[in-house]
Amino acid sequence: MGDNEILDCVVIGAGPAGLTAAIYLARFKRRFVVIESGGSRAAWIPRSRNHPGFPDGVNGKVLLSRMRRQAETYGAEIRAGRVETLTPLKSGFRIETEGETLRAKTVILATGVIDNAPDIPGLERGVEKGLVRICPICDGYEVQDCSVGVIGREDHCAREAIFIRTWSDDVTFIHVGAEPLPKSLTTDLTKAGVGIVESAVQAVEIKRRKITAFDFGEDKKRSFDVVYSALGVTPRAQLAVQAGAMLDDSGRLVVGDHQETSVPGLYAAGDVVRGLNQISTAEGEGAVAATDVHNRLTRNFA
What we know:
Blueprint: E1 6-12, H1 16-27, E2 32-36, H2 60-73, E3 78-80, E4 83-89, E5 92-97, E6 101-109, E7 113-115, H3 123-128, E8 132-133, H4 136-139, E9 147-152, H5 155-164, E10 170-175, H6 183-191, E11 194-198, E12 203-206, E13 212-215, E14 221-224, E15 226-229, E16 233-235, H7 238-243, E17 266-268, H8 279-296
Parallel strand pairs: 1-2, 1-6, 2-3, 6-17, 8-15, 9-10, 9-15, 10-11
Antiparallel strand pairs: 4-5, 5-6, 7-16, 12-13, 13-14
Helix pairs in contact: 1-2, 1-8
């Protein structure tokens, strides 16, 4: 691609949403590049068992590797880098990275979210072993008959603890918020059979055999087979805000039926858009966005 070439699209992010968009754009024979920083949240997944087509589950890094290879098979160009500025122009966008400036008619943002991780020593190792988990929709089925702790601060976090009762009879909500839980929420948790600990966590120990030990001070210690972090996420929406896109109350991007944001030609797909945080929905949104990009541009008949 020439230095002054105006691309059909730039895809920012190479997680499930961005790589799906890349597969579609490549097969549509569009001129585009993918820019990725290497920080896909999916890479943390030790094994996803609810992704269609993988009855024995699939490791997150393996899935990303396969998707990347599939996109590159059809000619997708994936560049390592970090986009610093995204500027709407009269026709298209200017995308500036640390080392280059690109022009494109459209942009698909697949930048995802960052988990607000709990302060647990050895967190990454705990995630790899399945002792620390983030998404009960993804893997709640796997915690059946386990003792489960749910770390959170707000109403939504407590609702997640109640949700996990779908699979386990032994669920405890570990409230680490600054303010006490409202009485109505305490009542709901109790009715659902969820235990409550309202005390700051003093120390945490991840042991080898599926035990996560929490010290709440005053000689109060608890052990859980699995601990869920329900501390929420921070959407990576800075570039979209920079370009003038509208956010919802949760800080995620508002999009239409075809994944276009409030800025014409700027699309978004995956976790940065809505709160389900599922690989399969991210992939679907990437496909929708890429197809609309293709349909809006001048036909590239061979």
